[in-house]
Give the backbone structure.
Amino acid sequence: MDYILNNLHFIVTHVPIALLIFSFVFDLIALIFRKRDWHSAGMLCLIVGALGAVAAVLTGPSPWRNPLVVPHELYARLTMFLAVVLAIIRVGLLIWKKLELGRNPIYLIGALAAVILVSYTGHLGGQMVHRPMTGAPGSGPGAGTGPGQGAGQGPGPGASGVGAPLAANGQASAK
């Protein structure tokens, strides 16, 4: 149970990424093919995606873990704010005015902005968690000291020879 609570952000973070993108895609499909039901799917994805964005922001990592957390958190909050505002306006207009906002060009521009924000936020989060893939020799798993997982742990197995033990000076020892 502790594992789930400690990693809750990494579990819920994919909900807004997927659903805000699909909300926009469903509304575009509904507009192009004149399928009204697809607007309902878009609105449902928007609502759940906005709630997921709130959950992702509330469970986010603390800034001391990585310097990229600060811009990641800024864009996450902007994404959350925009998604919640879009959801409130869209549901509100549907309830009070019986107006489906999914085909409105101004709404679609706002939804596209949410897609761009959530994509960039996810990109920053991915940079914090995953090492860059350079393709250079010795840059395989555990070999780099990039900003991702294992940062500062030094070269991993394979960086100085396959499984070669390291001496006190950090060089591979000869057996």
The chain has one domain: 2-129. The domain at 2-129 is CATH 1.20.120 (Four Helix Bundle (Hemerythrin (Met), subunit A)).
